[in-house]
Structure to design on (1074 residues):
């Protein structure tokens, strides 16, 4: 009955089938095969990535929950925990951008409240093809509307994020969504099933045929037949999820729950088997009891459906009525569909007749594990070569004058203001947002305490394409640095690893190097990884995306009112640079914008220097010595300084930056000083009286620090090696920066 | 004073309104579930923002059938102060407690940002402490805040001075570029003829604390507190006079 | 019986979605699509076999819930 064609349609390899037969001691039936196929898919089993992920640092005194649960958690004092995770919804968003992104938001929110935490903030990290390429706009508008439609409706603020445009994402946009919640540490609840005879409950939306094989779809490359897979995309209902959120948090207060898990990828199969497996228990359910939206659904379809907004609960025996009462209040119907058993089996019945029986561990812990072959990609040696010659021309394009280059960078969609996007997100609901989007890390205060949490998500696919190890380290460093710039001490991180087809050795090499880099940076900076998500097979017609690990870092501000933003505050403040520019142009936004070049090695990163810098920022913010702080990344120090002037009502700045020498031509040396992207640099402003103290603190922390100028006037003037090279009205520069994306989209095209 | 904050399934600014009333202004506050049939002694009612019943069908369309709306209507008819914020405004429109209707924003997109509002009327319980012509900077967050009234109704609303707030530029000058959603006559807030029921699209509860970047929303809460106090002292006058004699 | 209820914005009410769709169609070259008005469509399954009863019931539901008389009008088909 199970033939090679059926196996192929289920994405199972012949060797994997033999393994299934081994576990069962017999041939599986079709329902069982479907269950294995989703649980053993790359998306659910991490079969290619697990050997590498094991090397990541996941522990620390602040870590309350590491990887393996619905989300990670860190201690933020006063008996509270920050519960957070990032997840991808890349493939569904390509097929149907609105619903794909919306259900991505819904899924990550469920992961957080499932832990007993109230979600208080969302971030997202998006990647699309070239900004002006056909198709980009439709995807971007759909994804942004989907995120907004879900997040706004459920009432969780989207407080920040990042977005970049590169041709490599044209056929594989990335939609990574992060959610953070707050829980009392004593209230954290897990996804376990235990206690023989305890009731298994199903609550939430009815089950339909949507999303069947979503998990296997997320593990297969796209080809031109992908459009036919459209029915596999789920539709989100944020209203239902809002009810579930409130009802579940209310049920959790009763202590009648043993465990709870949402039905995400692989639906009922995944939630039953993972809960059973974690608790070392078995689960027996009858699918005939599962509420169904469509008629004539088979056990196979019910077990594999990925209909959204559904939860699985294990309730203490004798407490069922209490739980049912809470759900009734919210007009949700909790249905008793089975029991916990002690035999370690997932037993599925249909009207009492057994239709599947699989050991839980076979579906979870015993999923295949691959150590896939790796080789350094052939392209690498070539693209890392960056020969600037005499510096007068690069890639056939003359080196632009500094003012023009600055304006080109400010208008590039990766650098330009994202107001047009974040204005579509409710970023103020819950009245906690104290650093609004666009001003640095997102920061939310914690009501009832003096504290606040800062969060930032970062990743640079171009850097990782040129050097995955260094690029991944830089992503961790930048996310943590952004958090530190707000004054918060970085506590923990979550990662979303977006890569191509792991069966190709060059892709697997990129993956392994990136994970190594993340591990090295997280260890050095004291931000353990508490969970995350891997998204592989991001390829279309054999073209992989840039390897793109995105890292979200969460940090703690002990005093919310000491939060720091990127904006200059007043005229007459001193501007200081922490760190040193070395004129590193490899992989920079400048090379791409001015010379259409993606080449060189990304900037070097000294992890000790980075750690010292971040500790200094947190210390200075705690002492209220910083008026503003903004890190140097895309577009170098010139763009950083410009952004410090923006949204201030036009406060200008006059600065002088040290020269660097990268070539014979003076123009390229100026460009390298202004637009080079050397890491571990932050521009801060301080009141004149505080300069001496700040310099002393920096010296004590071993962080290079120099006064480079002062705020004031309404012009942005920059000198390199004593010579004025940029001189522009702040208003003029701000207009370019703030309107680039909006104007491109003001002209309506279909 | 006791604030009653009405919670519909899908409300999501209920906790924000409750927080403002209780933690910022130190008043008593009580959640009123949409299935409740009494107001628990509330002196002022807030219908908060959110997506009641998912905003399915039309914004605010289903919420008007909730059991709590009977007592809300009776409270309004007795002259009690009722404030609808954002989705709460939409619900008051659908219930017929306020005139007009909401359309999708002119730009079709949800907009969350600070806007400038000119105070048009100060003889409502929610604007009594503001100056006429005062410009408030308060955030909005909505996809359907494009206020509409048919020509005849609009004429009447204007004639009765029922427009409480209008979108303007930062100097209080009407300018279509500063109208975030296309509302007719730049209307951001209206009241009923009796002036005790006010609906506004902007979120005053998001602008009551320095930490949140602005405090221009405070005047809405301060006004209703002042209004309730003066109503209370009026009611108490004969009694205190009796005690003095 | 089944009633179909079509709800549209009244002609006097500006329809930003309809206009956007019309503009998109024009930019795709469909100049002969002069205007677009967007609306809502409902199917009601009614427990009656009387056309008149079905129509009355659908009209009542449309008046009370499905349409907002301030901005919308509706049309009913019964079969």
């Amino acid at each position: 009955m199970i033939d090679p064609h059926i196996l192929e349609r289920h994405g199972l390899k012949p060797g994997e089938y033999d393994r299934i037969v081994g576990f069962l001691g017999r041939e599986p039936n079709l329902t069982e095969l479907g269950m294995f196929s989703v649980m053993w898919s790359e998306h659910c089993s991490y079969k290619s990535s697990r050997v590498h992920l094991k090397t990541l640092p996941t522990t620390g005194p602040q870590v309350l929950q590491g990887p393996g649960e619905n989300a990670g958690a860190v201690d933020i004092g006063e008996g509270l925990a920050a519960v957070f995770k990032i997840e991808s919804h890349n493939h569904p968003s390509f097929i149907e951008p609105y619903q794909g992104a919306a259900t991505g938001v819904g899924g990550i929110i469920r992961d957080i409240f499932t832990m007993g935490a109230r979600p208080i903030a969302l971030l997202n990290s998006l990647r699309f093809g070239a900004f002006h390429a056909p198709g980009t706009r439709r995807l971007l508008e759909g994804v942004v509307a989907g995120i907004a439609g879900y997040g706004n409706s459920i009432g969780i603020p989207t407080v920040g994020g990042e977005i970049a445009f590169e041709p490599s994402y044209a056929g594989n946009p990335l939609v990574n969504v992060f959610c953070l919640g707050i829980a009392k540490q004593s209230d954290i609840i897990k996804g376990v099933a235990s206690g023989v005879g305890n009731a298994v409950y199903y609550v939430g939306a009815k089950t339909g045929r949507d999303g069947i094989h979503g998990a296997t779809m997320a593990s297969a490359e796209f080809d031109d037949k992908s459009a036919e897979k459209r029915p596999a995309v789920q539709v989100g209902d944020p209203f239902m999820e809002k009810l579930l959120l409130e009802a579940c948090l209310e049920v959790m207060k009763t202590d009648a729950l043993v465990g709870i898990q949402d039905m995400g990828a692989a639906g009922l199969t995944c939630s039953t088997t993972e809960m059973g497996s974690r608790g070392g228990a078995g689960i027996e359910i009858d699918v005939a009891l599962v509420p169904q939206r469509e008629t004539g659904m088979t056990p196979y379809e019910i077990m594999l459906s990925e209909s959204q907004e559904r939860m699985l609960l294990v309730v203490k025996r004798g407490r069922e009525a209490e739980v049912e009462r809470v759900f009734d209040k919210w007009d949700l119907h909790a249905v008793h569909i089975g029991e916990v058993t002690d035999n370690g089996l997932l037993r599925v019945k249909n009207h009492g007749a057994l239709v599947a029986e699989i050991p839980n561990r076979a579906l979870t812990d015993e999923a295949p594990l691959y150590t896939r072959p790796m080789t350094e990609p052939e392209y690498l040696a070539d693209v890392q070569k960056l020969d600037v010659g005499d510096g007068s021309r690069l890639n056939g394009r003359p080196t632009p004058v500094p003012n023009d280059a600055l304006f080109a960078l400010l208008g590039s969609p990766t650098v330009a203001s994202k107001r047009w996007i974040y204005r579509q997100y409710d970023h103020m609901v819950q009245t906690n947002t104290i650093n609004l989007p666009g001003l640095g890390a997102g920061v939310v205060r914690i009501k009832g305490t003096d504290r606040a949490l800062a969060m930032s998500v970062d990743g640079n696919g171009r850097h990782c394409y040129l050097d995955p190890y260094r690029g991944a380290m830089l992503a961790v460093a930048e996310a943590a640095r952004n958090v530190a710039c707000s004054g918060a001490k970085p506590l923990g991180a979550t990662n979303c690893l977006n890569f191509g087809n792991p069966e190709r050795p060059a892709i697997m090499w990129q993956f392994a190097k990136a994970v190594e880099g993340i591990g090295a940076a997280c260890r050095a900076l004291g931000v353990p990884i508490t969970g995350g998500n891997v998204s592989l097979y991001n390829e279309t017609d054999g073209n992989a995306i840039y390897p793109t690990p995105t890292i979200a870092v969460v940090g703690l501000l002990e005093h919310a009112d000491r939060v720091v933003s990127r904006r200059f505050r007043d005229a007459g403040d001193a501007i200081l640079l922490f760190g040193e520019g070395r004129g590193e142009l490899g992989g920079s936004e400048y090379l791409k914008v001015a010379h259409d070049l993606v080449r060189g090695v990304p900037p070097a990163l000294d992890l000790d220097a980075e750690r010292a810098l971040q500790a200094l920022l947190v210390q200075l913010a705690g002492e209220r010595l910083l008026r503003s702080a903004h890190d140097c990344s895309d577009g170098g120090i010139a763009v950083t300084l410009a952004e410090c002037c923006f949204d201030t009502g036009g406060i200008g700045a006059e600065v002088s930056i040290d020269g660097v020498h990268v070539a014979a031509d003076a123009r390229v040396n100026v460009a390298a000083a202004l637009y080079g992207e050397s890491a571990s640099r932050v521009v801060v402003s301080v009141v004149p009286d505080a300069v001496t103290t700040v310099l002393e603190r920096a010296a004590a922390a071993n962080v290079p620090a120099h006064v480079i100028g002062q705020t004031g006037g309404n012009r942005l003037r920059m000198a390199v090696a004593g010579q004025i090279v940029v001189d522009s009205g702040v208003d003029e520069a701000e207009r370019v920066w703030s309107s680039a994306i909006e104007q491109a989209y003001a002209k309506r095209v279909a | 004073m006791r604030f009653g904050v009405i919670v519909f399934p899908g409300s999501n600014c209920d906790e924000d309104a409750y927080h403002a009333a209780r933690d910022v202004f130190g008043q008593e506050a009580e959640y009123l579930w949409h299935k409740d049939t009494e107001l628990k002694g509330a002196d002022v009612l807030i219908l908060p923002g959110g997506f009641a019943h998912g905003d399915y069908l039309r914004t605010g369309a289903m919420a008007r059938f909730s059991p709590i709306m009977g007592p809300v209507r009776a409270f309004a008819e007795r002259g009690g102060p009722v404030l609808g914020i954002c989705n709460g405004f939409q619900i008051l429109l659908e219930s017929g407690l306020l005139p007009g209707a909401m359309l999708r924003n002119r730009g079709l997109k949800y907009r969350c940002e600070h806007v400038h509002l000119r105070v048009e009327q100060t003889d409502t319980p929610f604007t009594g402490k503001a100056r006429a012509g005062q410009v408030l900077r308060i955030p909005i967050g909505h996809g359907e805040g494009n206020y509409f009234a048919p020509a005849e109704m609009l004429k009447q609303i204007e004639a009765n001075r029922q427009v409480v707030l209008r979108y303007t530029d930062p100097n209080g000058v009407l300018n279509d570029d500063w109208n975030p959603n296309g509302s007719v006559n730049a209307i951001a807030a209206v009241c009923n003829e009796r002036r005790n029921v006010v609906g506004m699209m902007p979120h005053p509860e998001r602008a009551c604390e320095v930490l949140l970047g602005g405090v221009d929303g405070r005047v809405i809460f301060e006004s209703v507190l002042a209004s309730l106090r003066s109503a209370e002292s009026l009611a108490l006058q004969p009694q205190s006079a009796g005690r003095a004699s | 019986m089944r009633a179909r209820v079509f709800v549209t914005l009244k002609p006097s009410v500006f329809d930003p979605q309809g206009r956007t769709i019309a503009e998109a169609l024009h930019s795709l070259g469909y100049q002969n699509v002069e205007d677009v008005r967007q609306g809502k469509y409902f199917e009601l399954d009614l427990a009656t076999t009387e056309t008149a009863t079905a129509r009355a019931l659908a009209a009542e539901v449309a008046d009370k819930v499905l349409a907002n008389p301030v901005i919308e009008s509706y049309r009913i088909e019964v079969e």
About this structure: Chain A touches chain C through three residues (CB under 8 Å). The first helix of chain A runs from residue 4 to 9.
